[in-house]
Design a protein that fits this description.
The chain has about 180 residues and is mainly α. It has seven helices and two strands. The chain has a two-stranded antiparallel sheet with strand order 1-2. Helix 2 packs parallel to helix 7 and helix 4 packs antiparallel against helix 5.
């Protein structure tokens, strides 16, 4: 097991840009694995978001998800429902914005000393909590829902699967970092 994980600034700019683009692509691809279960679809995106942050680190994980959000803002249909810019105006907008913050914070926590699996999982759970906070806030505002209804539609069905995604991301972090180092 690695004692410390390399920080993103240890990589060349070109290597960082390729890694950011790869994680952006991973998020796009994970949006294609969608189960439409209601207002908020079930996707593999939280796994991709957490992997982006945990492997790339806070700064580059943040940028990978910011690039993903930027592509959607440009009108490209890379969100789970293929809406493009309209996704940023709908009930899922908060989750999309939350991707950026979740990757950044989870990555920051892993960079700053989460050397054990349970610590990386905890960082992933913090990322999921941020994702839910952003997502539920805008879901409540956009769909005019109270917290209990928003929770039932936008968080409760995803809680256990997202905890599992955080665990998977935590377990893949070390291998992803080794891959980046070549």
């Amino acid at each position: 097991m690695l004692r410390t994980l390399p920080r993103t600034r240890d990589f060349s700019l070109s290597a960082r840009l390729v890694a950011i683009a790869a994680c952006t692509l991973l998020t796009i691809l994970s949006s294609r694995v969608t189960i439409d279960i209601g207002v908020i679809p079930f996707t593999l995106q939280p796994l991709a978001v957490l992997l982006s942050g945990m492997i790339l680190g806070g700064r580059d994980g943040f940028f990978s998800q910011l690039a993903y959000l930027g592509l959607i803002a440009l009108g490209l249909p890379f969100d789970a429902r293929g809406l493009g810019t309209a996704a940023l105006l709908g009930p899922t907008a908060g989750y999309l914005v939350g991707f950026v913050l979740a990757a950044g914070v989870a990555g920051f926590l892993v960079e700053r000393g989460s050397t054990r699996g349970w610590q990386r999982w905890a960082a992933g759970l913090v990322g999921i909590a941020i994702l839910y906070a952003c997502g539920l806030a805008l879901l409540m505002a956009r769909a005019n829902l109270d917290l209990s209804v928003a929770w039932a539609a936008g968080a409760a069905p995803f809680l256990l699967p997202d905890m599992a995604k955080a665990l998977i991301a935590a377990s893949l972090t070390e291998a992803g970092r080794k891959f980046l180092r070549g």
